[in-house]
């Protein structure tokens, strides 16, 4: 069974940073950590290279997950990893999805800022 704790805990480190980002970015408070966890599980399946999942690659990992979240929000659907019928972002309004997608896009364009905000 897959978990978010892999490659010496890098998954948990990523989720911790995303939770911190929610704390310092008021616009992100409407999305729950469950959505981030689901995105991380999908990305783990897509990125098999162990070099990608290293702490010294955190900037690229965060950029990738933020772009993944932006894409899911624009589509309006992020299926839960273990139950594809459950939409992890289904509780958000269309306006919230648009605002979040735009914010994730801007954050992904500046991953260094994300790292500073979550240190």
Automatic annotation (TrEMBL):
Name of the featured protein: Mab-21-like HhH/H2TH-like domain-containing protein
Residue ranges of domain Mab-21-like HhH/H2TH-like in the record: 13-104
InterPro entries for this protein: Mab-21_HhH/H2TH-like
Top-level division of the source organism's lineage: Eukaryota
Pfam family, one: Mab-21_C
């Amino acid at each position: 069974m897959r978990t978010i704790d892999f490659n010496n805990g890098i998954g948990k480190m990523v989720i911790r940073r995303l939770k911190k980002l929610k704390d310092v970015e008021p616009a992100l408070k409407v999305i729950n950590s469950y959505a981030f966890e689901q995105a991380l599980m999908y990305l783990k399946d897509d990125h098999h290279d162990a070099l990608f999942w290293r702490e010294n690659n955190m900037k690229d990992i965060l950029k990738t997950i933020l772009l993944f979240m932006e894409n899911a929000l624009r589509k309006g659907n992020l299926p839960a990893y273990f139950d594809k019928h459950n939409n992890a972002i289904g509780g958000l309004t269309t306006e919230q999805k648009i605002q979040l997608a735009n914010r994730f896009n801007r954050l992904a364009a500046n991953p260094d800022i994300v790292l500073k905000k979550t240190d």
